[in-house]
Amino acid sequence: MSYAASYQQALTQPNLFWQQQANRLPWFKAPTKMVDTSQTATGRWFTDGVMNTCYMALDHHVANGRGDQVAIYYDSPVTNTQSSLTYSQLLRQVCLFASALRDQGVKKGDRVVIYMPMVMEASIAMLACARLGAVHSVVFGGFAAAELAVRIDDAQPTAIISASCGIEVAKVIAYKPLLDEALDLAQHKVKSVVVLQRPQLEADLQAGRDHDWLSLMAQAQIRNDVVEAVSVLATDPLYILYTSGTTGKPKGIVRDNGGHAVVLNYTMKAIYNMDAGDVFWAASDVGWVVGHAYIVYGPLIAGCTSILYEGKPVMTPDAGAFWRVIEEYKVKAIFSAPTAFRAIKKEDPQGELLKKYDLSSLETVFMAGERLDPPTYDWAVETIGRPVVDHWWQTETGWSICANPVGLDDLPAKPGSSTVPIAGYDLHVLSDAGEPVEANVKGNIALKLPLPPGCLVGIWGDEGRLHDSYLKEFPGYYTSGDGGYLDDDGYVFIMGRTDDVINIAGHRLSTGEMEEVVGAHELVAECAVVGVQDPLKGQLPMALVLLKAGVQIDDPQLGKELAAMLRKTIGPIAVLKSAHIVPRLPKTRSGKILRKIIRNIANGEDYVVPSTIDDPASLDEIKVLVSSQ
Ligand code: COA
Ligand code: AMP
């Protein structure tokens, strides 16, 4: 079916459209009910379907002749290791680890936190949870102990799975002390911790609580018990993935099993043009939604071969790293963040390293995670010589809202646009008053309810937050938090967040949370943190600080201290651009800091001075400060 026909059918006959997609999967009991909006306006899909995501991803393929095909290649330039697991071997490893987890008391519905670097065991752990019907919550390795502790307290896991260390280029990052600190900070007491000991740095294990991954696997092998894939309802949760919102408390996005499997299978073909047996590489991290969907579940459900890459686009060992992997594994499509390509462009602007490799297998380059700026788009098209697809995503949706669906039709690309809404998304651009705006006019991007399968079904442990965060602002719509416009051809241009979320090198973080950290500095009376554009990382946070009366410190010293605090509390990915001491912060007469205007000034964008501003001169001070940068 063409893009236009499928989009139209999903819009006018959603139940028929998604039933056809659902029928392509091996259910234990195929669903007869499609969307149900009686409980929630966002909709629940396939409510009577019974299944298991791990079964769909592994057992089904082994039973249907795909057992000897490589399921996942592990490529780790930072440890000089390469390995692979076929579908049969991966299934065996997953069953053993599921047995180990079961032995640790993990059962259907229990939560399991996974805090691991990019190792094969991370995907084994995720799939083992899915097999047991347990709910995994993967926490990105670049988050600090305090962030991990917040997630542990929220998810209340029965077990945590981690590793002794991660490797960042040449640095060995000890994970276990971070985990121990998080467990000390957390109120929730975890019964069982499983640690993968890596040879680069072994961790001390706490007797009684901590277990060695390999020992548990060996015991499971001796027990040799059968671990069948547990039947779950399509609407049972598969995972919780925490993401940054406007406040300090991250949101635990809940994804269910059925909708997730159906849309990933659909998108593997419709968007990425991948068939079973093809090699797909999402150069991301399993700690992000892209890693969940397209390193682990999507490629496996679709019978493809995936790559789990523990390295960077540059420095491991050079800016030819991506091209080497593409040649070596005959990658058909690569998916990464624009920042990764900007890093390559910086090191190798002419693409000299690329010329050393055979990229003949590569058909398409996909990018997401942040705005793909036209210069990076143009460079990638010219240098790689393949179609580059910008597609727009959110952790909340779990799959891309807009893309060029190259598996259906190769629509003409427009730089700066993530092309068109994918089947299932009824996208509108609304004014702040909630009225539809005309083509080419910027507004709030909103999705008409109900949402298609695979999107968030709730915020873990906080029933009201889904409504308050996403559904309240524009009744009948999901508010994306992104601003942008539709052009005359219906192409979507995403221009950036309308709230306090920023994207640093493809890592989504909250400036609200950063303000809490900055505000905790002993000399700081008040502050505002805003995202400013950065040519490499996309955005970086800048702090404007009002000091307490009578104290003294200069900008560079304050910046250094605040950067250290952000690193310690949020993690090394929260890289501060600069801090500036200001005599006052622009506010409304009722005392609200005008963050949006500060952001506009810092990024050289137009703005309208609100009539409610307390002191317009405060804006001039910020202008002077920014122009002196
Ligand atoms: N564990 C521990 N530390 C980590 C980490 C992890 N998983 N990931 C990043 N860090 C650390 C880095 O080592 C670095 O530490 P340093 O300040 O001591 O050097 C710091 O966090 C900042 O990292 P980052 O912002 O990622 O910069 P970088 O120079 O290490 O790498 C890129 C730059 C562009 C290569 C990298 O950010 C990247 O690949 N981004 C894409 C992200 C992505 O895939 N997003 C998902 C959307 S598709
Ligand atoms: P995350 O939840 O980490 O995937 O981040 C989602 C946010 O990243 C979105 O709300 C956007 O602000 C931004 N984003 C993701 N993909 C794109 C894209 N292709 N173009 C513009 N912004 C994007």
Largest sheet: 7 strands, mixed
Structure summary, number of beta strands: 32
The geometry reads as globular
Q: Any idea what the CATH architecture of the domain at 507-627 is?
A: 2-Layer Sandwich
Stretches with pLDDT under 50, minimum 5 residues: none
Note the gap between the termini: 53 Å
SSE class: alpha/beta
For the record, what CATH class of the domain at 507-627 applies? Alpha Beta
According to CATH, the fold-level topology of the domain at 507-627 is GMP Synthetase, Chain A, domain 3
- Please, what is the average pLDDT? 96
Task: Name the CATH homologous superfamily of the domain at 507-627.
Answer: ANL, C-terminal domain
Biggest sheet: strands side by side, in what order? 5-4-17-16-18-19-20
Helix proportion range: 25-40%
Strand portion? 15-25%
How many helix segments? Answer: 18
What value does the Rg take, in angstroms? 24 Å
Bound molecules: coenzyme A, adenosine monophosphate
